[in-house]
Every structure is written in C-alpha cells, then in structure tokens.
Specification:
Strand content: 25-35%
Number of domains: 1
Shape: globular
Strand order of the largest sheet: 1-2-3-7-8-13-15-14
Structural class: alpha+beta
Largest sheet: 8 strands, mixed
Radius of gyration: 20 Å
Length: about 280
C-alpha cells in the first residue's frame, strides 16, 4: 500500500523540475497543471520512470481507488489510504482557488461535493487528505508542498456553518422562486418573462502554504527544486519504522519536529513533523 513517505522517497530518487517537457512527449500533456497531477500520481505509484503506458496503467490501478476530475474533490485516492488534492500556483503571493468546495480538514464520504463514483470506489467513511501544492512556472516545478488537511484547514463545521447561514438568508427573501440545489442557492424565473435564473455559488480561496507556514519554514527559491511536507506527529508515527528510517538516513531529506497552530484554535499548538528536501 502506497503512502506519502514512499512518495517522498520516489521524488527524492527522481526530482523532476522540468515537468512539462518531461511529460509532454510520452503522455500528450499540454499544460503544467496536468503534468503536476501526473507527477503526483507517479510519485505515489512509483511509476516516475515507467514509460510503457500499459505497465503504468496497471500500476496506477493497483495503487489508486479513484482518479477524479477538476470539478469535484479529491483528484486522487489511494487504495485504503489517503486522499490527495492537487493544486498549482505561479506566484508566491497567490491564494489557492478551491472553487465551490471549502478547505478540507478530512475527506468525508457523505460530502455532497464528491461524486458517487468516489463514494463507491471502496468501503470508506473518512480519509486523511493531502494538499499537493506546486509552485510552478508555465513549464517547470519550483516547489512542491505536501500538507495534510488537518494541519491546514479547520473542521468542516466551521465552513459548513457559513454556507448554511448564507443559504438560509437567501431563501428568506420573499417573492422569489427557489429551486433545490447543492450550491448556496438557485432562484428561477427572476424576470417577468420567467426566462432568467440565478445561480448562487461559493468561490473559496485559501492562503498558500508559503504564507501560512512562513514562520515554520522559508523555502530557498534559489534552489532548482524544493519539497516541503507537514503532517501531524501522530500521523508520522503511524507509518512503518522501516519507511521512516529510509527518510531519516537519506542524504537530501531532512526531518524536524515542529509545532504548528491548531487550525481550529490558534491559541493551541500541535506537534507536527516537517520534512524538507532541496535540490541545487
């Protein structure tokens, strides 16, 4: 079964900064976003160097239970393992667009934003979720952040309460024809001819990890490639000792015990593990 420690080791063996040129030839990939997601898949499936499409597809099928789409989280789910949401930014100051889905502390099978195929791909109720965030140019990957949702986002009740409050406020407006929707609201027949409808959607953004964790780690942007991973210490401790030893003794990988703010209560600090790698 694959996991984030194995993925980091695979990236350490094959750190690919020039993502677009590397993937455009063998995978017919035309943009850096697609290349980033494919690289994340390959890192977890240990297929970075596999060029035979049939062999790669077989391995992907063995490792992942679900590969998603751009409109519904997550992008990837590991068989009996974590979910992964892949995002890219092209500026250190950019916020991350999450569209209509609020940030995920965990991924729940009863989330209305995930597809039926995702819910049915395996027997599951809740999964840890990794935000794989690439800082890219149009052609290359400069920094890859791997951040667990419970280090980054608050509990789902924080975000759901806001959405429900807005939805209720809209529905309380008299004289409008409302329709059932998974969005914040939908108003039908708003004009005298009854031919115009209004969709009310949430557009969520979250600050990128360079800003959120700037007091924890400063990325050296002069390096060709950087990897930064943050997870709760209890999550790190749940992995096999053999895998942790491989990380600890790798010449390019550095581990550090840190404390980060609890996303649900910043007055509290939680124990976490910082894993970094720099390639000159």
């Amino acid at each position: 079964m694959s996991n984030i420690l194995k993925a980091i080791l695979n990236i350490a063996k094959n750190p690919i900064a020039e993502l677009k040129s590397n993937y455009s030839g063998r995978n017919s990939i035309n943009n850096i976003g697609e290349a980033l997601e494919t690289y994340i898949q390959d890192a977890f499936a240990n297929t970075i160097t596999v060029t035979d499409p049939e062999k790669r597809n077989q391995k992907i099928s063995e490792v992942f239970s679900y590969l998603g789409n751009q409109n519904n989280p997550p992008d990837i789910m590991l068989q009996q393992g974590d979910a992964i949401e892949v995002k890219k930014i092209q500026s250190k100051g950019s916020a991350i667009a999450l569209n209509s889905s609020y940030p995920k502390h965990k991924l729940y099978a009863n989330d209305s934003k995930i597809t039926d195929a995702c819910k049915a791909c395996e027997d599951w109720d809740v999964k840890d979720i990794i935000y794989a965030i690439g800082v890219t140019s149009d052609k290359s990957l400069k920094t890859l952040w791997l951040i667990y949702g419970d280090c980054y986002a608050a509990d789902k009740t924080i975000y759901a309460r806001i959405g429900e409050t807005i939805k209720q406020g809209v529905s309380d407006i008299s004289g409008l024809e409302f329709a059932e929707t998974k969005e914040l609201g939908r108003v039908n027949r708003v004009d005298p001819l009854g031919i115009t409808n209004l969709r009310i959607r949430g557009m969520w953004h979250i600050d990128n990890p360079l800003k959120v964790f700037k007091d924890i780690h400063q990325v050296n942007m002069d390096k060709t490639f950087n990897l930064v991973c943050i997870m709760r210490l209890e999550k790190y401790n749940s992995f096999e000792q053999e895998e942790k030893d491989k990380l600890q003794y790798h010449q390019h990988i550095h581990l550090k015990d840190i404390q980060i703010k609890n996303p649900n209560n910043p007055a509290q600090l939680i124990d976490a593990k910082l894993i970094t790698m720099e390639i000159s």
